[in-house]
Structure formats: structure tokens, C-alpha cells
Specification:
The structure holds two protein chains of two kinds. By secondary structure, chain A is α/β, with parallel strands linked by helices. Chain A has helices at residues 23-28, 40-48, 68-85, 102-110, 123-130, 140-150, 169-179, 203-219, 230-238, 286-290, 293-309, 316-319, 324-331, 341-364, and strands at residues 4-10, 53-59, 88-95, 113-118, 156-161, 183-188, 226-228, 256-259, 264-266, 279-280. Chain A has a single domain, classed as Aldolase class I (TIM Barrel, Alpha-Beta Barrel). Chain A is built from 14 helices and ten strands. Chain A is globular, with a radius of gyration of 20 Å. Chain B is mainly alpha-helical. The chains are: A alpha/beta, B mainly alpha. Chains A and B meet through strand 1, strand 3, strand 4, strand 5 and strand 6 of A and helix 1 and helix 2 of B.
Chain lengths: 368, 79
């Protein structure tokens, strides 16, 4: 089996938007960081040792602001290292899309980057919780969709869920369906202490969103391929061993890690305070950092939480205690209670019962 | 081996044991091979087919919170 690693790289803290829930803004206190181009070769080299395949997810701030030369150096370094060590590289860029030009799309297509767009549907919510000082158009996503279509590239969207859009499951689904997206993922907002940060969804509302989305997903005839986390939940209930999304699996500190612009290796995007630093990627190999004492400390904390809180839960193997980052922003502790435990249990039960019904009906040859 | 490493290895073993009670289990109590996939709704049919094919999902194409990379199955049905 191939040894795979996902490395999320924060290229810089700068952004052309000003999202009310931005955890980078909340955790850096407004200080600006930028990853230096001359460090990229070292970054790629130190991330690749010990693995067969490394997927880099280029994040920000806004990762397009890193510029062409940055990504040209990324590709050059990856090719150079692949020649020597045979490590395979894949690249994903997660952008708000506002700076995407034909030139950028040509570059991404030529170098086989997958492009993920961040957009919080429906559009009025995107404008409300993500606007910069000048404001943004409600419909710029349509231009992005058209551009990607022209370049024959799929449109994959990441949609943050706050209290403002949690009960708009149908509007979100219809909007993305009409837009022709290939896939979208509902991502829980981190409840940061920023003054304008919207309220986090309640367990009840989140269950409602998942149930609504599941029903729409189940009934859709054609259109997008993947709606997350619905697909991960369904797959897991059907018996797939390894949940695909990190927040449902055992990927934390084992198959996924984050690098900050100044080279700190941290468990995930917003764990930037000194206690979470596991090493310096410009000096240490990532493989070594994963076996460090500090890494084991957090694994222990996560395992202790699961042992205490999830013992006896029938969904333990397909939930695994929830996302530690979401728990951290809600409780201030890495091993704090996962705030959406109830919602997960309810949604898993609901989907399980609906799937049973549908499967039974299909055995009888009747329509679902 | 340091104390932290020992603790982690021990705990990992225990947690995995807890997980194994349901890991890879089909939660529906329905034998998937008894299902006529063609009678399922499109979305579910594609996933069920794929789960049967890749039952040992250990090497599945895992993702972060999005699927920016290629989907894990070919959605060719168009009903």
C-alpha cells in the first residue's frame, strides 16, 4: 500500500476578502506572513521524505496572491525531487476565485492542479459573511463557473456553514445544482472570537441541514457527483472501512498535516499557538515530526477523548470523535467535547433508516 | 521509547479495538450483493457499486474537507 500524505500549505496570511469567521485573522492577530519562494524547495523536499505520494493543498489567506513565480517554483521542485526519489505529487488549490484569470487556469490545467472554490451559498450569505470593504458581487461565482467550463475544468466548491445559512439546505443545493458544480462540501464554521463572527449552527439545525441535503442528494437524477459530508456518511454506513473525510476518519496527525507560512508544522489550519508547533519544515523532515513526542502528545489527547466520550457509541468507527479543530474553537481545548456529537448521531441514524427503507423497496422492485 | 510514545501506542491499540467492533461493518443489516443496484436511485447506486468494488477502503482516495480532486467513481449513469 502506498504511503500517502496530505500537506495543507498556508502560502500567506494575506487575503483579498475579509471573512467574518476567518480563523487565520483570528489566530495571527492581523500580523502578515508570507511563505518565501526560496524556501519552497526545502519545503517540498522535507515533506516528501518517507512517502510515496504527497498531495499539497495550497491554502491562504488567498493562495493566488502568492503569485506565478511561487507555483512555478513548486512545480520545478516537485519535478526535481520526483526524478531522484520517485515520490508522486499532486496539487490542489483552494481559492476564493476572485483573482482567477485565464492565465492562471491555463497554468493550473497544464500542471494538473485541482481547483477548489470557496463560496458560501446562497449568494446573499456569501456577500454577508465574506465581503471585503469594497463589497463583492453576489454573482461572481457564475463568471468563475463559466471560466472553468471554458477550460474544461470541474467546479468543486467548499461552502462554510454558519447559523446564517444552516437552514437553507435546499437553497444551497438548488443554487449549486443550477450552477453546474461538480461537487460541493458543507464545511462547519469555526466559531472564532472575532467580533463579527456569525453564530455557529446548533446541533438541531445542523441535523436538519444534513437530512435535507441527504434527501435532495438521494432524489437527484443527475448533476453533481459528490455532496459532502453526505457521501462520506452514506459510504461509511454501507461498510466502507476508511471514512473519506478527515473529520470522520483517523487522518489527524497520521495522514494529514498543515504548514504555516513561516514553516511551522501544526496539526491543522488554525492551531497556530506555540503549544501546537510540531517542528520547522525548513529544518526538519515531516516524517520525523510525525514521530515526535509533541505529535504523540496530541494523538494521546485525541485517543483519551475518544475513549472517554465515545465508548459504547455505535457510530464510533465512522465518526471517531469528530474534528478536533472545531472542538478547539468551541471549547478552547484540543481534547474538548466535539460540539456536534448529537447532530452526527441523529444524522447517522436518520440516513441509516432511510437507506434501509430504500434498499428494501429496491429488493421488492418498488420505487423509493 | 519515551513515555509519551508508549502511552500513544497503548491508547491507539485500545481505541482501534473499540473501533473494530463496528469498523467495515455494514450498518444497514442488508447484504449489498442482494440488492439490484439498477433499482436504486442514481446517487446511491453509484456509491453502493463503488463500495462493493472497493470494500477494503484502506487505500481509498481520502480527502480533506473538500473533494477538489477527481471523484472516486465514474458517474456515468444518466437517467
Amino acid at each position: 500500500m502506498k504511503k500517502k500524505m496530505i500537506v495543507i500549505v498556508q502560502t500567506g496570511s494575506d487575503c483579498n476578502l475579509d471573512c467574518d469567521y476567518c480563523y487565520i485573522k483570528a489566530s495571527t492577530g492581523g500580523l502578515k506572513y508570507k511563505m518565501p519562494i526560496e524556501k519552497i524547495n526545502q519545503l517540498v523536499k522535507n515533506c516528501s521524505f518517507g512517502f510515496d505520494e504527497v498531495k499539497f493543498c495550497w491554502h491562504g489567506g488567498e493562495p493566488i496572491l502568492a503569485g506565478f513565480d511561487f507555483y512555478k517554483e513548486v512545480i520545478r521542485s516537485q519535478k526535481e525531487i520526483n526524478k531522484i526519489s520517485k515520490v508522486e505529487f499532486r496539487n490542489v488549490i483552494q481559492t476564493n476565485g476572485l483573482l482567477l484569470t485565464d492565465q492562471w487556469l491555463d497554468f493550473f490545467k497544464e500542471n494538473k492542479f485541482s481547483v477548489g472554490i470557496s463560496f458560501d451559498a446562497p449568494p446573499e450569505i456569501n456577500r454577508l459573511q465574506r465581503a471585503n470593504k469594497e463589497g463583492i458581487s453576489e454573482v461572481y461565482i457564475t463568471d468563475i463557473a463559466n471560466k472553468l467550463k471554458q477550460h474544461k475544468m470541474p467546479l468543486n466548491v467548499l461552502c462554510v456553514v454558519s447559523k446564517l445559512n444552516v437552514l437553507k439546505g435546499k437553497e444551497i443545493f438548488d443554487f449549486f445544482n443550477d450552477l453546474g458544480v461538480n461537487s460541493y462540501s458543507l464545511l462547519l464554521m469555526m466559531k472564532t472570537p472575532l467580533a463579527n463572527c456569525p453564530e455557529a449552527p446548533t446541533n438541531e439545525d445542523l441535523s436538519e441541514l444534513y437530512k435535507t441535503t441527504f434527501e435532495l442528494w438521494l432524489k437527484r437524477k443527475h448533476g453533481f457527483r459528490v455532496v459532502e459530508p453526505i457521501e462520506t456518511m452514506v459510504r461509511s454506513l454501507l461498510g466502507e472501512k476508511m471514512p473519506r473525510l478527515c473529520s470522520f476518519g483517523n487522518h489527524c496527525l497520521e495522514r494529514m498535516i498543515t504548514i504555516t507560512p513561516n514553516g511551522n508544522i501544526i496539526p491543522c489550519g488554525s492551531f497556530v499557538s506555540p503549544e501546537f508547533i510540531l517542528g520547522d519544515i525548513y529544518k526538519n523532515k515531516l516524517f520525523g515530526a510525525l514521530f515526535s513526542q509533541s505529535c504523540d502528545k496530541f494523538r494521546n489527547q485525541r485517543a483519551t477523548y475518544i475513549q472517554k466520550s465515545c465508548n459504547g457509541c455505535e457510530f464510533i468507527s465512522i465518526c471517531r470523535g469528530g474534528c478536533r479543530e472545531v472542538a478547539y474553537w468551541h471549547t478552547g481545548e484540543y481534547s474538548g467535547k466535539y460540539p456536534y456529537c448529537e447532530s452526527r448521531k441523529e444524522t447517522f441514524s436518520y440516513i441509516r433508516n432511510r437507506l434501509k427503507e430504500v434498499m428494501e423497496k429496491s429488493k421488492l422492485g418498488t420505487s423509493f | 521509547m519515551t513515555e509519551t510514545q508508549f502511552l500513544w501506542k497503548f491508547k491507539r491499540k485500545e481505541v482501534r479495538k473499540m473501533e473494530r467492533t463496528t469498523s467495515g461493518r455494514n450498518f444497514l443489516g442488508v447484504n449489498l450483493s442482494d440488492i439490484d443496484i439498477n433499482k436504486l436511485p442514481t446517487s446511491l447506486a453509484c456509491i453502493t457499486d463503488n463500495v462493493i468494488e472497493t470494500r477494503n477502503g484502506d487505500d481509498a482516495d481520502i480527502g480533506h474537507f473538500y473533494h477538489s480532486d477527481q471523484p472516486s467513481y465514474d458517474h456515468t449513469r444518466d437517467d
